[in-house]
Amino acid sequence: ENRRELQISHYPREVAQLCKDVCNFFKEFAKSCDEFAEEKFDLDSAANFILQSSSPQALKLLYRNLKVPPSRVWIYEYQLIDLQEMEETFKQHFKERGLIPFAKNIDGDFLACGKDDHSGGVYEVEEDEEEIVCESFATYLEQYRCLLLSNKLEYIEGMGMVQRSEDIKRK
After folding, report:
1. Where are the alpha helices (DSSP H) in the chain?
2. 79 CB contacts (<8 Å, ≥6 apart)?
């Protein structure tokens, strides 16, 4: 058994592979959805914000490895936001909190992460309330990747990637 002594964020190669796995999953997922297949996107137009910020390396790698528009990548019930929206939302609502928003749900709530690689926790943010859901972005993404690749999540239109009903019944 290969156990790490530290969080995944301390292992750059594993973080890079983790981000590639999530991006490749959604690239293949998009191929299976006719309405997603032809959509093009340009990541370079607003990339400077995230790439030059002090955001977690895993967040930067996730966006660098995207093969489909950010809105086609779901993290549970949250869709990734494009970099322009990320920058605008950060400046308007998150700068004072020291959090970087990266995904939004249908209700307008955000997932956001701290700016530091090793303590850049993931937060669910609803208006003025924030709750930490994981101690690091890389760890959060690793847990999500495991569920994706083990086929424990399914896409439901308008809801995102949710736990399969047969897996909920077994618990």
Report:
1. 12-31, 34-37, 47-52, 57-64, 83-89, 137-149, 165-170
2. 70, 71, 72, 73, 103, 104, 105, 160
Largest CA distance in the chain: 46
Say whether pLDDT at 169 is over 50: no
Amino acid identity, position 9: S
For 126-149, write each residue's pLDDT tens digit: 988 999 999 888 899 999 999 999
- Of 82, 135, 71, the C-alpha closest to 106 is 71
8: tokens are 């995944």
pTM score of the predicted model: 0.82
**What is the DSSP code (8-state) at residue 82?**
P
Considering only CA atoms, which of 141, 140, 123 is closest in space to residue 132?
123
Q: Record the tokens describing residue 81, joined without a space.
A: 């936001």
How would you label 114-137 residue by residue, b for 16+ Cβ within 10 Å and e otherwise?
beebeebbbbbbeeeebeeebbbb
Q: Which two tokens stand for residue 43?
A: 């990541």
Mean pLDDT value of segment 18-36? 78
